[in-house]
Design goal:
Blueprint: H1 2-28, E1 36-44, E2 54-63, E3 66-74, H2 83-89, H3 93-96, H4 102-114, E4 127-131, H5 134-147, E5 157-160, H6 161-168, H7 177-183, H8 194-214, H9 221-228, H10 240-245, E6 257-262, E7 268-274, H11 277-285, H12 293-301, E8 304-309, H13 313-327, H14 330-334, E9 343-346, E10 355-358, E11 367-369, H15 375-388, H16 409-412, H17 426-441, H18 448-461, H19 465-482, H20 485-488, E12 496-503, E13 506-513, E14 516-524, H21 531-546, H22 559-574, E15 581-583, H23 590-598
Parallel strand pairs: 1-4, 4-5
Antiparallel strand pairs: 1-2, 2-3, 6-7, 6-8, 9-10, 9-11, 12-13, 12-15, 13-14
Helix pairs in contact: 6-8, 13-22, 18-19, 21-23
Length: about 600
Amino acid sequence: MLSHIIIEQESLFFWKFLLANILLYLFMGTPIYDTTFIVCDVETTGMSSDFNRITEIGLIKIYNGEIIDKFTSLVNPQQHIPSQITYLTGITNEDVMDKPTFGELSPQIHDFIFDKSHTSNGADSMFLFTGHNVAFDYNFIKKSFLRAGHEFDFNLKTICTCKLARRLLKKLKSKSLYRVAEYFEIRAENFHRAFDDTLVTSKILLKFLDILNEEYELETTEEVLKFQNTKIYTAVNKSPILKRIKANIKDFPKLPGVYFMKSSSGEIIYIGKAKSLRERLSTYLNFSAELPPKIRNLIQSVHSIEYQITDSELSALILESKMIKKHKPRFNTAIKRYRFHPYLKIDVQNQFPKIEKVYEIENDGANYYGPFSSGRTVNRILKQVNDIYKLRKCEYKYLRPTVKHSTCMYYDIGKCNAPCNLTQSKKEYKGEVMRTHEFITGDGNESIQKFYERQMIRFSEEEDYERAAFLRDRLKDIQRVMSYQKVITSAINNKKIIIKQKYGDKEEIFFIHNGKLMKTYTITMDEVMDENMILDEIFETTEYLFFSLSKFIKHKFTAEDLDEIKVISNWLAVNRDKSIVLEIDDTMTKEEIIKWIMKN
């Protein structure tokens, strides 16, 4: 009976998970970090995939922004390797004489490429074949499979890092693998060897994905595929939209701000923010028919673009939020963007908290841990927490315990102590929550950091260096997050925070209380200032911050306030450098705060 219930509940969970993913992909596309990239490089006896053969193959699998597997082998081409190829690659006829042919390796290669075991619950993932000048490697692999007699359809979409380099590194004269690697300061043992070139290409791909995600705000693989195929326009050969609005890319400043796209009637149809207005707008203005349909429809409706410069990126984010609320542009809803930076959340404001993976910070009193650079880190911490601690896993947001509740499968298998039917008291459950918090944030023997350190050492001693390296990356991700966790845990509740952002010769100072922006100052560095006046104003603001309203008044926020709080909180989560963020505590004097503000 118990096994039947477990199977039934697991089946229900699977179908819910599957439906959620189907809806996600239908309406948003495949998130970049949910895509499996198969990075490949082959060395060959010549340039023709019809007449020449593979002498070496390197494959690396990337998922969730990380290298998770590799395959490499010399290959017997069953034909002579010309001396000029040996000179270039160092691979001789003797090297490959006793190596397997492609036909003999093809089952391993096929299984490596199409294995789905790394995806969440074995779910489908978009698979992309990737390389530098990818058509060369793709054609050789495809023809080699055909010659080996395989009937399956090797038909994958491709991402080319060389194409991306032409669009993202326009000022770099040569887009060769060596020059792009040099630009990113990526070193390789041997260029023109398959695995070394595959590893370099993988690192370049990850750099490009970060740039596309953070600077160009592309979040789905479909958008990246479209981006790599966009026509490259020049100052001479202007794009249609630039001709229509009678502008050049250089007309827009390389400064943070908010831009307003308008229709022929003057209606504001889209509002966006940018770290650099020129860079962001260039992704729209240097466009072609290859852009996603919603973006293409927007571009075709734009007849003028106006912009408002701000003193910092955070100001641009706040202004964008206010302007969208005020004007309600029709395309902002259609082209709604999502961030894929995961957090761990424990809803400690509730009597019986749960732990879960989320993508945004809310003003709800919960503890947030993150953002983590990898969803895999979050998934592994969650698994470890669920294995060790007995926090509830039921779907109820608010638990109302009663002795009439029957226990669920998690109690029966020892994963929960059933606070739902008062088997576990509220006090005991709170202790379990605190132990979970310490496990995540602490650095003692019973912490996630020490747990990974012990496992990493064990794998190293067993010479399992791949798994040791994987855990090393998880550990670095956790240490990076926890080094600033005081700023993020309950980041917007009962907090007094000062933010400094410097752009050019200006520095903008933000005073945040309970997540809300109380006051902003802009200081220009190169002009003569009345420092005493600025200090008086800042002193007045710090006086206000020292008087904690939250002790006496329960804050009530408007919808606009909550939106602003969310913008500031999520910015804080990503930008936690101690040189630009100061959390005020009761030990600090006003003079110390002012000294920190005026530093540099």
